[in-house]
Amino acid sequence: MRLITKLLIVAALCSTLTVFGSTSDADKAIYKRVDALMKKMTLQEKIGQLQQLTGRKSEITGPAGEKMNTAEFIRRGLCGSMLGVKTAKDVAYYQNIALNESRLGIPILFGYDIIHGCRIIFPENLGISSSWDIAAIEKSAQIAAREAASMGIAWTFSPMCDISTEPRWGRVSEGSGEDPYLGAKIAEAMVRGYQGDDLSDPNTILACVKHFAAYGAPQAGRDYHTVDMSRRMFRDRYLPPYRAAIKAGAATIMTSFNDFEGVPATGNKWLMRDLLRDELGFTGFIVTDWGATDEMRNHGVAANGKEAAKLAFDAHVNMNMVDADYIKYGEELVKEKQVSVKTIDLLCREVLAMKFRLGLFDEPHRYGGDRYKSETYLPENLEVARDVARKSMVLLENHNATLPLKGSERIALIGPFANNRKEMSGAWIGFCEHNRSTTYLEGLQARFGKDNVVCVEGCKPFSAIEGGIAEAVAAAQNADVVLLTMGLPNSCSGEATSLTSIEVPQAQRDLLDALDNTGKPIVVLLVTGRPMDVGYEVERADALLVTWHAGTMAGPALADVVSGDFNPAGRLTMTFPLNIGQVPIHYNMKRTGRPRRSLEHTQKYTSRYMFTPNEPRYAFGYGLSYTTFDYSDLRVLTPEVAMGESVRVSVKVRNSGKCDGTEVVQLYLRDDVASTTRPMRELKGFERVELRAGEERRIEFEITPEDMSFWTINEEFAQEPGSFHVWVGHDSNATLGGEFAVRK
Question: What is the pLDDT of residue 541?
Answer without folding.
Answer: 98
